[in-house]
Amino acid sequence: MNELDYLRQMRSLNRPVVPHRDLWAGIEARLDEAPSAATVRRHRARPWLMAAAIAGVAVLGGGIGLHLVSPTGNDGLAATGQAWKPSDPRLSGAAVELDAARMELTQAMQDSPDSAALQRLLLRTERQRDRLRNLEKQAG
Amino acid sequence: MNALCLAATSFMQPELPAASSDDEIVRAAIGGDRKAFEALYRRHSDRVYGAVLRLAAFDHARAEDLTQEAFIRAWQKLEGFRFESAFGTWVYRLAVNVALMSIRARNADPVSIVDDEHLPDITDADNPVRAFERDELEKAIAGLPPRARAVLVLHDVEGWKHEEIATELSMAVGSSKAQLHRARGLLRRALGDKP
User: Fold this and answer.
1) Residue A29 touches partner B, C-beta closer than 8 Å
2) Taking the alpha carbons of B104, B109, B113, B115 in that order, is the dihedral positive or negative?
């Protein structure tokens, strides 16, 4: 028997084999324990949602506080994305939260650059930051 | 009998159009659709099971465990599937990897760490003595040491290149070649020693 015959015989073993029993039931049972890609994706997005929510609440609280103290006019100042630290201690906490949220969202977008949800959250965080800066300006 | 089998098989098929391409079904499965994933399992399990069975020394119980593990991992890693290859190829490679990891984890092959120069001296190793029946061949392959069997199955049965085997088994290409030489020799000896 030459090598060609040998290889032919070996390759004849390369065939699909039907399992003796249906394995799907066992797989399906374990899928409950094994999160799917979609579930993992949802869970991964949760910390960023949480960060954005915290930042939103902080901005709202700071904004209301400023309005109560200094209800002045609106000059519509456009904010930039640069590092910024409000002098008012009531706003500085919100600013820190917003900066942290922005940083985390930016990092998350490096992993999932096409995520529309992350893009929306980042945009919303930027807007909240702008509003906060406007409020600070209004307060003088 | 055949009609009965066909009826049973079609009963088990998930409710997806038969003509759906793998890519469409994979996209649905990535979205979390279990029926879609079951359809993928039904399409590809036989090929996966066959490969895993050969690597698991034709041990059906172990091959069943490994096949289930492979499909569970496929479910978890599905998001990483980039549609650059066929899903069947992707899940086959993943399953082979699971089987090889099992071999490595068991570390049941004391000869696998033997240096190439200490391999048994086998002459005419690439020329097995006679034609043999498939069952006989499978039994002889099952009797090989795990690592040697893995190299032999991947190269001679599955048609992999030494470079691919070396990568999957974390060994040098030369070691893969030496293991194949050794496995063929052991196989020849096992088949030749039969009365």
Assistant:
1) no
2) negative
